[in-house]
Each structure stands twice: as C-alpha cells, then as structure tokens.
Amino acid sequence: MSPFPKLRILARRVALATFILGAAGLAAAPAQAQAQRVQTPYAKPKVLFDMYLDHPDKMATALYWVRSFVNPLTEAPYSFFDEDMKIIVLLHGTEIVTVARKNEARYAEVVQRMRYYAERGVKFRVCGLALADYGYTPEELQPFVEVAPSAMTELVHWQNQGYALVMPQVVDKKLSIEAIR
C-alpha cells in the first residue's frame, strides 16, 4: 500500500477532471505554437570571465563564451558600443601558455581572437602567482595582457565592483549535435 493513499486518490480525480473538461472543450487554452523570443532590457553590462582550464587547447572554445556575450549586445536591438560594456578575462590555469609570445605560432587562432577582443576594450589579465608557477615573466607575454597580483584577489575585487562572474565550462564533447537531436 502506498504511504500516501490520499495523494494517489487526489491525483486520479485531477486526471479524470482534466479528461472530462478536455472532452467538453473546457480545458485550458492550448499552448502557443512556438517559443517566444524575449528582449531583456540589458543595461551597462559588466562581466568577469574566470578562465581556469585543464588544457590550453580549450581556450579556443572558452573564448566562444566571450563571443556569446559580446555579439548579441553589439547587434540590434541592443547595438551597444564597445565602451558600453566592461569585460575582463582572467587567466590562471593552463591557458596562460596561450598568451606567451613564444607560443604564438602554436596558438595563433586563439591569440588573434584575444587580440581582436582586446582592441575592442576587453581586458585580459593573468594571475601573477600562476605566471610565476609557469615560469614566465610579464615581458614574455603578449602586449595586450595585464598581470594582476593574484587571480583570487582579482575575483573578489571585481565582484565587489559589481561585475558578474562567468566561469566558462569547456567539456569534451562525446556526441555531435546531430547525434542527439
């Protein structure tokens, strides 16, 4: 016997009433034929992307998170200018090697995309502690990179300044979109 006999009886009565009302044409209005697009009233967006990746090759995918933030805001109906948005990308994992000048050929596409965003006002910051752990100096990095004392202090500081924290999740895809549709 179910521990909730009254609940089971109530569920049967609701199902029966729904069936009767539906047959009589009195059921709730049918759902809309398609999803509705909304235009959220975004204003003065400030975001801190916290990059802490387990493999530098994942930086290319992580940068799509930046694109997914920037593109909708710079296109109609929002049409924000670059100066309307404040964006910081904080690097403190294996992705640090992508901004080392000696690795530019290996990560050419990633560096080109970061350079493009930097020219549009996106700040790229590297954790000074992690930089030392990787054996690099500020002089060895791309010129669009700024070195912060610590990723942890940067995370706290910018959140205290009202920046939203976004932590890109880059997973290894096991299935294609076509396979799961």
From TrEMBL:
Q: What InterPro entries would the database entry show?
A: DsrEFH-like (IPR027396), Sulphur_relay_DsrE/F-like (IPR003787), TAT_signal (IPR006311)
Keywords attached to this entry: Signal
Q: Which Pfam families match?
A: DsrE
- List, alphabetically, the PROSITE patterns matched: TAT
Where would one find the signal peptide in this protein? 1-35
Mind telling me what this protein is named?
Intracellular sulfur oxidation DsrE/DsrF family protein
